[in-house]
Amino acid sequence: MKRATIVVLAFLALLMQLGSVNVSIAYANDDDGIIMQVQMGFKGRFRLGNWTPITVDIKNKGDDVQGDLEIEVQQPNRITSAVFSTPVVIPHGTRKRFKLYVQINTLQRNFEVKLTQGGTVIDSVEIDDVAPVTRDSYMLGLVTDDREALSYWKASLGSDRIFYQYEAVYLGMEDFPNRKEVLDNFMILILNNADTTRFSKLQVEALRKWVEAGGILIVGTGPNGHKTLSALQDGILSASMSGTEEVARIPILEAVGESTIQGDVPFEVMNLAIDGAEPILEHEGKGIVWKVNRGAGYIFVSAFDLGLEPFVSWTGNKMLWENILNAHISADKVNILKNIEVRRAYGVRVGTARNELIHEALGIGMKAMDLPPFSKLLLILAAYLIVVGPVNYLVLKRLDRREWTWFTIPITVMVFSAIIYGLGYMAKGGDIIIHAISVVNLDGSGSADVESHIGLFVPKKGDYQVTVEGDSLLALGSQGVYDDYNMPSASGQNDRRRGLIEARVVQGRYPSITFYNTNVWTMWDFMMADTVDEFGTIDAELYFEGNRIKGSIINNMPYPLENVIAYTQYGYQVLGNLAAGEAKQVDVPVFARTGQWQSQMPYLYSMLDQVFPYPHTLSAGYRNLDDEIRERYVRRLIVEGLMMAYDYSATLPLKGTLNLLGFSAQRIVPDIEVNGAAPQIMYHRNVITTQFDVPYEDEGNVYIPPGVIMAALDRGKSEGIAYAEGNTVGYVGQGSGVFYFNMKPYSGLEYSKVDIYLNYQGVVPELYVYDPARGEYIDAGEGLSIDNAQGLISIDSRAVERYITPHGKLELKVRVSTNSRGSTSSLKPEMPGTIQLPTLSIEGRRR
């Protein structure tokens, strides 16, 4: 009896455990000789707005199958759907694996994967309760042959950490993505004790492109270093390895990890030498952790295994990497990883405002999309009324045949309809038109991430199939814009219900997208992304002088640029045209005090109005623009889209980098066919973007002006915050904001001057600095000078260390009351009090 009770309890526990697990793998029976297994995303998780992989394993015990795998995905309007499909051939007696990629833009949790042949469904698999990941969290990938050893990454650190709001998922060697677009689901990858010789060339290439585009790769070595680094030697790392040695204790790890390593198990450390790498942690003159900059990304290599003792049981194992990343990656990336608001606005390159503005630019760039002049329509309407009324009556009266009105009026209607259609045809034409706008982001290594938005003008009603050369992944354009919280599904709602299919996306060797039942003289758009090697670079030699960035930039691309603008969050410089090989001088403010400060949106439009003036003729609708005005307006919309977040707030840079953009007409997109033929007309427009970090150290002397190091907002300790957008924080009534600077990257400095600046509008600020020794915020203290009216905190060089916490933070509190007589924000008229994120200025010398 006792044994039976134990068995029952164990069975119930198993059922409870199964019930708590997301169903990411689903199966179909073999009633038709087909056994189909489907896995969606990464163990049921996927990031909204990114490409989600669907792995389908099929065993065919029946007749040969030549058909398609397809999945229907709801669009944000919840009325229409898009079908993603790929062709499959499954002979009798074979087992095959297929990959299907989908872009999901709503909180849809239930899907159905179908195997069709000749339009008939021969098998299907339902997938329930998958877990979409919004921008509230980021995804961290664990690539290893020993999953249990890295299980400690499943638990996060406390709030206000890099390793706090994230989803950790395992990636097996066999299902590691072979496309960079799929790896973009992850912001950090940890590679440890993994046999990378099993990687295909496509997987290695995808990993390289992902790192160079801004990914963070952490690699563990030690006794498993040879097999882990093996495939990385081909274009990602160049390392020489000469065995391992046991090391009883590594004090630098304990110092950085803020915890003592317990036990007497030694580290097994690999002797490494990595080309182009910087040893950022050393023990007895040997590198323990190395850092490699690759494009916009980072690679960190540890000389020890991250899944062996004593590292696995050490309480500081994640804190070590927390502090390493804080000190050795850009402030922008730290903010994205730590801060939800920043991640929502800056962490994803697609958004409602961006897509809709570029969609508008696609339409305006084609004359065929212009509306007809209102005066012409009014003239035709007046002529029709005159003919069908008085003229028709007088003529029939004169002929004494007024009964003929039963056919003269229909004839008149048909004649004027033909006239209107003829005028429309003369204006719109019967040509199929393609308009391509490519957003090119240079990463500094010569490669470029290219996101192309393609507009298709259709002259007739019907279905249009657009085929693209290559293997690009095609996605719907503005019809499927991304919104984290776009109409979430109600509990128990059937997300698999069939909607009106507006498009079918086919993947494979000949990718295509088919738009169904299009109306005459309308435009449909789609997007595709790619990474182009050897695209060229724009290089710079820059330096800080006072509160400005100065130096030169040179166009090392093989083609010229037009309307080039260099800008920061506080100012801009119009450089005009930049020929291939040409260099120009730049002089742009990196910071401005309160009297000069404007909120980001007015500054953005000031820049746009100077370079791309708004055409006043648009008051009557965007029609009949001459070519020059049309081109300026198209470029204005593109720039506006690049600088807008998903919620239409400005996304100007948060720190003192110099940003550059310019336009070119170089053809970038591959060959495109519509219904099997080249389009009659095709336009190309490209915007080239890049970003430069400005060096702040020269022969050991360090100067960092204000505007480069921006504080982070600690929401948990703040009160009365109405909103936080970009670098602006809004208050209602009274409130207090707590901010902090991460001082760990500057711990090796001998400070000579440290100042904190605060810009504000419509508030009366009171500034305080946190004193760790007293455990409170103070407005006066040793070596501390605070000027509330100027928004300035100065800390004497000898007192700086006193105000830095054991965790390496310099904290301040801004207590405000809104000033009813102060100026109000044009963006948030109901939010009269705003401040900018405090910014830090440092002068000193490297020890």
Question: How would you describe what is shown here?
Answer:
This protein is α+β, with helices and mostly antiparallel strands and 847 residues long. Helix content is 19%, strand content 40%. The chain has 13 helices and 47 strands. Strands 9-8-5-6-24-25-22-33 form an eight-stranded mixed sheet, with no helix packed on it. A hairpin with a 2-residue loop joins strand 35 (697-698) and strand 36. It is globular. Residues 1-23, 346-351, 480-493, 645-654 and 820-831 have low confidence and may be disordered.
Q: What are the low-pLDDT stretches, counting only 5+ consecutive residues below 50?
A: 1-23, 346-351, 480-493, 645-654, 820-831
The total beta strand count reads 47
Report the sheet with the most strands, covering strand number, pairing sense and barrel closure: 8 strands, mixed
Percent of residues in helices comes to 10-25%
Q: What is the terminal-to-terminal distance?
A: 74 Å
Described by the principal axes of the CA atoms, the overall outline is globular
Largest beta sheet: strand ordering: 9-8-5-6-24-25-22-33
Proportion of residues in extended strands: 35-45%
Evaluate the radius of gyration: 31 Å
Mean pLDDT across residues:
84
Individual helix count: 13
Helix/strand/pairing category: alpha+beta
